Amino acid sequence: MRTQLLTWAASVLLKLLGGTLRWRFTDEADYMQRDPSKPLLVGVWHNRILVLPLCFQWFCRRSRRLNILTSASRDGELLSNLVSRFGMESVRGSSSKKSVVALRLLQKRLEEGSDIAITPDGPRGPVYEMNPGLIYLAAKSGVPVMAIRVDYERFWELRSWDRFRIPKPFSRVHICFQRPVLIDDGDASLLESQRLKLSKILG
């Protein structure tokens, strides 16, 4: 009951904040026109995820499903409940290559036609350092990765490991869905070079 109350209050505050923001949305991926039966892996840095539930609810086609990978922790439970209020689903677990159960669940959601969103430097960081889970899943599944860049004109930055950012009311927010990229399966050096390339795309 407490979780439901907290996430309801958080969703209301987020919508109120979002209503003050000056949005700019760029869809280089043609996400709106993309066949909903062809899923994407979505990558975004952990400290930029706050406005994404609003973005997907307000700007994106409702015909597309989106699952968010959240941690198995208490914070992950809160995030899972919060995003459900914006029409999103969630998979609990880790994107680490060692987390076989979570990877199988993610693969199943992809096969069902759902997009999967992963914060590649989460859930513990270091900030802006991509762990191998997203690259590994993309290589094994053959599903393209769409990087999302989120930039705030003015923001507060928390003293958390990810330096979490909260846009200030009435500031500009630019969200860019970048062109999807395919990750080639191969040896460790090939995957590492692609990991570094995708990190640069994320900004």
Broad structural category: alpha/beta
Extended strand count: 9
Query: Within the largest sheet, what's the order of strands?
Result: 1-9-6-2-5-3-4
Cα-to-Cα separation, first versus last residue: 38 Å
Q: Report the helical percentage.
A: 25-40%
Q: Find the CATH superfamily.
A: Glycerol-3-phosphate (1)-acyltransferase
How many structural domains does the protein architecture include?
Answer: 1
Radius of gyration: 16 Å
Strand content: 15-25%
CATH topology: Glycerol-3-phosphate (1)-acyltransferase
Give a quick account of the main beta sheet: strands, pairing sense, barrel closure: 7 strands, mixed
What is the overall pLDDT average?
Answer: 89
Order of helices and strands: HEEHEHEHEHEEEEH
Briefly, what CATH class?
Alpha Beta
Low-pLDDT runs of 5+ residues are none
What shape does the CA trace take? Answer: globular
Could you please describe the fold and organization of this structure?
By secondary structure, the chain is α/β, with parallel strands linked by helices. The protein has a single domain (2-202), classed as Glycerol-3-phosphate (1)-acyltransferase (3-Layer(aba) Sandwich). The protein has helices at residues 2-20, 52-59, 74-84, 100-111, 133-141, 188-202, and strands at 22-27, 41-43, 66-70, 89-92, 115-118, 145-152, 155-157, 165-167, 172-177. It starts with a helix and ends with a helix. The mean pLDDT is 89.
